[in-house]
Amino acid sequence: MSKQALIIIDIQNEYFxxxxxxxxxxxxxxxxxxxxxxxxxxxxxxxxxxxHLSADPEALPIFVEGTPGAEIHENVKPLDGEQIFxxxxxxxxxxxxxxxxxxxxxxxxxxxxxxxxxxxxxxxxRAAFDFGYKCTVIGxxxxxxxxxxxxxxxxxxxxxxxxxxxxxxxxxxIKTTDEFLNAVS
Length: 185
Hints:
The chain has helices at 26-43, 98-104, 117-130, 156-170, 177-184, and strands spanning 4-9, 47-52, 83-87, 109-115, 134-143, 147-149, 152-154, 173-175. The protein is α/β, with parallel strands linked by helices.
């Protein structure tokens, strides 16, 4: 029998209005992640909050530990007793206790929400799959930003959907918040 855990990746103030790395639609994504979080709390299933911190605050002055930007956003604020893993790399498993936490809790499937779709959500989903977990990404509970390459701007919506499509091609299922919650109700 499958046991699920929720991974909420980097839904931190830095990505919202007045943050230093504002994304497109972070509020909507965080509210959807909050709905999934409430489901996991109600079912008393494992929850892992991931908090990105700058490895070198002088070189990269975002997600600096102890600053408001590094704090987890109020829409998904951890409750006392919920696990928080701090990371310095896009992959939420790298040099954190996330893998051990999932093993200790007998988890076989991870439900992934968070920010940024094209970076930490992508890296964590691929790693989770490589570690043998069934993966479901809640697409509308993730957010991205415009990116540039070779002088061209790729709009956030296109970045977001391209990465979700790539993940769904091999690494996991992509569902909306409503699809996920209706399937487990």
